[in-house]
Write a structure and sequence with these properties.
- By secondary structure, this protein is an alpha+beta fold.
- The chain has one domain (8-89).
- Helices cover 36% and strands 22% of the residues.
- The protein is built from three helices and three strands.
- A three-stranded antiparallel sheet has the order 1-2-3.
- Strand 1 and strand 2 form a beta hairpin.
- The termini are close together.
- 6% of the residues are buried.
């Protein structure tokens, strides 16, 4: 992929983050650090337990003892991200050349 290419899932999360009704809180938590200077929150992408055909993005505490609830940012059909990736590859890869694995 070209150097200016970005992951489609990242784009989905970034757009949802920018429009999120709790954006200020998301920004604050993403900057939060512990006493050692390490982040205390992380972005987690996972299949939803209710429907594995969907991917969910949440901001969650890293420490399992942190009792604060994660914040759901967005979710999308898993196939959508794969289709966006396939489309990007089709645009950027020369025709007739096998894709590098």
């Amino acid at each position: 992929m070209p150097p200016d290419w970005s992951d489609p899932e990242r784009g989905l999360v970034e757009r949802a983050w920018a429009k999120h009704q709790q954006r200020g809180l998301l920004e604050q938590l993403s900057r939060e650090r512990n006493a050692a200077g390490n982040p205390t929150w992380r972005l987690v992408l996972e299949h939803t337990p209710e429907d594995p055909e969907w991917t969910r993005a949440t901001l969650q505490p890293i420490d399992p003892h942190d009792m604060r609830e994660g914040i759901r940012i967005t979710s999308w059909p898993t196939a959508k991200a794969q289709q966006l990736l396939d489309d990007a590859r089709a645009i950027t890869e020369p025709r007739g050349e096998p894709r590098a694995q």
